[in-house]
Amino acid sequence: NQDGSEGFIFVSGMDQLHTGFEFEGYYKPIKYVEIGAMASIGNWEYTKNVTGTYKDYVDDAETEEEYNYYTKGLKVGDAPQTQFGGMLTILPINGLRLQFDARYYSEHYADWDPFSRTDEEDTEQVWKTPAYFLTDAHVSYVLPLKGKFTVEVFGHVFNLLDEIYIQDATDN
Fold this sequence. Notes:
Layout lengths: L6 E5 L4 E15 L2 E14 L3 E7 L6 E7 L10 E11 L5 E13 L2 E2 L19 E11 L9 E6 L12 E2 L1
Parallel strand pairs: 8-11
Antiparallel strand pairs: 1-4, 2-3, 3-6, 4-5, 6-7, 7-9, 9-10
């Protein structure tokens, strides 16, 4: 509370429904090449509007007030709900690994506070970031040492094509 005292809002039923499909697979057509693919197509949203009851326990006099939260049908934020990816790995010599991967992200809604939706007229969907495509390159080599220990040298180039994208956003 503004006066420094504490109060509680009791809310039940602010549920989310997460549905979708995910796939991940790998194929090694020849000894020196691996191919991978993945897909994740989701639909995550709040299932209903809910009411919360505010309880104030100041001076041993319990007071209650109700608040309504209008979240039904609004998308859950903070992660892309649709993702596609592919990977190509080349193993030219023993210990050397060259890998290239590409990923496409979309249906990424901004993070938001469902308790900020107290206006019945405020039913607009939260902000959705633009879709984006990223590529990375990786190389690693396991040094051919004898003994109990192994040493692996590796390097990475993330965002190989220098894509400009929005990874995190907040609405409200």
